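Title: Prediction job returns without error message
Component: structure pipeline
Severity: low
Priority: P3
Assignee: unassigned

Description:
Job completed but the reporter wants confirmation the result is attached to the right record. Sequence as submitted:
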Amino acid sequence: MAVTQQRWDEDEHLLDDLRDALREAAPLAGTLAEHGKGAYAWRTVDADLLLASLSFDSSLERVQERRSDPDDDRVLVFTASPLSLELEVTPGHVAGQIVPPGPGEIRVETAEGVTFHVQADDVGFFDLPGQLRGLVRLRCDTPTGRLVTDWVRL
């Protein structure tokens, strides 16, 4: 339907043209409404996800007036009330615990885009397989809550 600007000088003509346009779009209305509802639902997808900041890194602590050796064991603590995530990094192995202790799922993400999951046992302990190096962050889902750590270089 070709509409000229002259027709819109009167409100009744404008309303008629809008009504015609809506009738033509009616078959898409259900699809558009579903897309809108889906987009609206995503607004809170991470609302209960806490950002855990690095609250302790043993490699930054001074030990007898020297920085720790890069090959020394390293302890990292990420805190986001009510959860914390503790990691112990040793050459060739990374282990951790959820605090307060309890089961959960840990998703490990690397800066290169590699993602894998491990399960924490009933007291919150977990092991990360292989030699994990470079920038990583961890997402932790437990019955107590959810958190994601800062990116940290291992």
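Comment from assignee: result matches the submitted record. Residues 5-43 form one domain.
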